[in-house]
Amino acid sequence: MTPITEVEGRRVALSNLEKVLYPATGFTKAEVLHYYATTAEPLLAHLRNRPLSFLRYPDGPDGQLFFAKNVPPGTPDWVTTAEVPRSEGPARMVLVQDLASLMWAANLVTEFHTPQWLIGAPGEADRLVFDLDPGPPATIVECCRVALWLRDRLAADGIEAYAKTSGAKGLHLLAAVRPTPSRRVTEYAKELAVGAEKAMPRLVVHRMTRSLRPRKVFVDWSQNAARKTTAAPYTLRARPEPSVSTPVTWEEVADCTDPGQLVFCAPDLESRLQAYGDLLAPLLDPAGAGALP
User: Fold this and answer.
1) Tens digits of per-residue pLDDT, 41-63?
2) Kind and range of the H or E element at 269?
3) What sequence ranges are listed for the domain DNA ligase D polymerase (predicted)?
4) Cis ω on the peptide bond leading into residue 214 (within 30° of 0)?
5) Which fold has domain 124-288?
6) CA distances from 85 to 3, 90, 148, 189, 290 (A)
7) Where are the domains of the chain?
8) Hey, which residues does 218 pair with through a beta bridge?
């Protein structure tokens, strides 16, 4: 029988709590749910009012992985949904606005992915993102070097950047921007990616072509497109271990000399939040948003 729990007055069914989802560490579904419950405050702040794409892995990272963009069958009627424009026609997507909705979504075993715009203004970006993806044998260590260059370049334009691990191999840079058409933000991000390649031609590539990427860091500027999404801060990832897309300080970025220094798993996050709070909280303050030149 599926256990039912009450979360903020809502009845939420929680299934297969003893199921091991991360075989490398024995991390169970119950531990996944506990992680999301204990990091709910900062996670919800970054999910709120953003339509979600779910990367589901109900049998763990070695099982089937699939994206779910439309409202999943069986979604409770108290979960907030909204119509979102798409090139192929409007679709209805989930918004995780509260703890009950978060626990319902976490029970589906998902990564949370969000666009760079809010539901009230589709295609008007309030975030800028760079996804720094290392081509082996390059690692996150090389990503950190590129991130520091991009941070300084953004600062020259009056835009303050913040960093988080992708939870996989690379690093994400995020910045709050004044509402700007996603097309313009994408153009600007591409300009900076091209600039990074010119400044560090042996280290950076701005094109997605696979043959160009070994030993270099691919600066993916395209995730600023209105139709695209990026792994949200604090989401678990479908990796061998329960790794988390974790905000990091610029000191940690500058001091990184080994990939293991910037690998954080679910059990690490409680102490980091106690020590640092939400390092990405400034992204939530409209007063700190920069204007594109």
Assistant:
1) 999 999 999 999 999 999 999 99
2) helix 269-276
3) 28-279
4) no
5) Alpha-Beta Plaits (3.30.70)
6) 36, 4, 35, 23, 26
7) 4-114, 124-288
8) 133, 205
User: Are the CB atoms for 259 and 147 separated by under 8 Å?
Assistant: no
Q: Which residues contact 190 (CB under 8 A, 6 or more apart)?
A: 206, 221, 222
The predicted pLDDT at position 222 comes to: 97
Q: What pLDDT sits at residue 1?
A: 58
Intrachain domains 4-114 and 124-288 with the same fold = no
Over residues 175-184, the pLDDT tens digits come to 999 999 999 9
| Fold classified for 4-114 | DNA primase, PRIM domain (3.90.920)
| DSSP-assigned beta bridge partners for residue 128 | 175
Which tokens hold the place of 46? 């970054």
Query: What pLDDT is stored for residue 86 in this prediction?
Result: 81
